[in-house]
Specification:
It contains no helices and 23 strands. The strands form six sheets. Strands 4, 5, 6, 7, 8, 9, 12 and 13 form an eight-stranded mixed beta sheet that branches. It has a four-stranded antiparallel beta sheet with strand order 14-15-16-17, with no helix packed on it. About 35% of the residues have low confidence. It has two domains: about 160 residues, Methylamine Dehydrogenase, Chain H, CATH 2.130.10; about 110 residues, no CATH class. The chain is an all-beta fold and about 280 residues long.
């Protein structure tokens, strides 16, 4: 994502990088210094989950449709009739396999799976066997073949170290006129840079030079379950998993879609009609 003065992008490993003008801290590196070469936001390593080798196979036809190597799990799209197979030999119950957080292999506590050779299912949070929901944001159902058995793996969407705000693993980033927002793979939204109109969603108008998490509408918690983001010059939009649309920032021309022209430094729901119905 870019405008005329700075740019922001997401690398294959999930890290966020920025370059260019930084007068309002929009590069997210904790300073206001311009950069002529890309820098990593926060400077830390990514904590995004990724697979070392894998392939998506259609469960109806058996045809392989996609291959992945060293890919972010959040970049793997699984259709209703597809399953993701990890291409690792010799996987068995209680044995580790090639799922990584950054460069560190996930521990057994970060995944839940069971082994069987019949129906496709996965272990849920309460240890019950449930049908996998394929193609849903924030989830991944993985099959690993071993000695005729299938290990069905359910990857948790929030590993223990995701609270490290120095490193943002993000599937999407958007640049405004002098601010940047990023969608993290856990469905949270982060922002940094210019904030005179409430662009950062903090309930205030204080600009910051490092990423801060966008707050909820009441300012007491945080915006969650977001699947897509967009940035205007001085306002932002976020699409939630339930279909609702949130906006915040500059609103002189009514761009927040909430029936007013008042700026909002916290997310508000976009409305339709007479303003009594949420846009979904």
């Amino acid at each position: 994502s870019q405008n005329g003065y700075f740019g922001a992008f997401v690398k294959k490993d999930g890290t966020v990088w920025t370059v260019g003008n930084n007068g309002n801290g929009q590069l997210g590196n904790g300073t206001a210094d311009n950069k002529s070469q890309p820098i990593q936001v926060g400077g830390g390593s990514s904590n995004a989950m990724r697979i070392t080798h894998g392939t998506v196979i259609n469960t109806t036809t058996g045809i392989q449709s996609k291959e992945y190597e060293n890919e972010l799990i959040t970049n793997v799209t699984i259709a209703e009739d597809e399953q993701l197979h990890i291409l690792t030999d010799g996987i068995s119950l209680n044995q580790s396999f090639s799922l990584l957080v950054g460069n560190t292999q996930l521990s057994q506590g970060d995944v839940e799976y069971t082994s069987f050779n019949t129906n496709i299912a996965t272990v849920g949070e309460t240890d019950g066997i449930v049908t996998p929901v394929k193609g849903t944001y924030g989830t991944a159902v993985i099959i690993a073949k071993s000695n005729g058995y299938s290990s069905i793996i359910r990857v948790k969407t929030k590993p223990a170290d995701t609270d490290d705000v120095k490193s943002i693993a993000s599937p999407m980033v958007a640049a405004g006129a002098a601010h940047t927002i990023a969608l993290r793979y856990d469905g949270t939204v982060w922002a940094w840079g210019y904030n005179r109109n409430g662009e950062l969603g903090q309930g205030n108008t204080t600009s910051v030079y490092s990423p801060v998490q966008v707050k909820s509408a009441d300012g007491n918690s945080y915006l969650t379950d977001i699947i897509e983001i967009a940035a205007g010059s001085n306002h932002n939009l976020a699409l939630a998993k339930d279909g609702t649309v949130w906006s915040w920032g500059y609103n002189y021309h009514g761009q927040l879609g909430n029936g007013t022209k008042a700026n909002s430094s916290l997310p508000v729901k976009v409305k339709i009609g007479d303003g009594s119905v949420d846009l979904t």
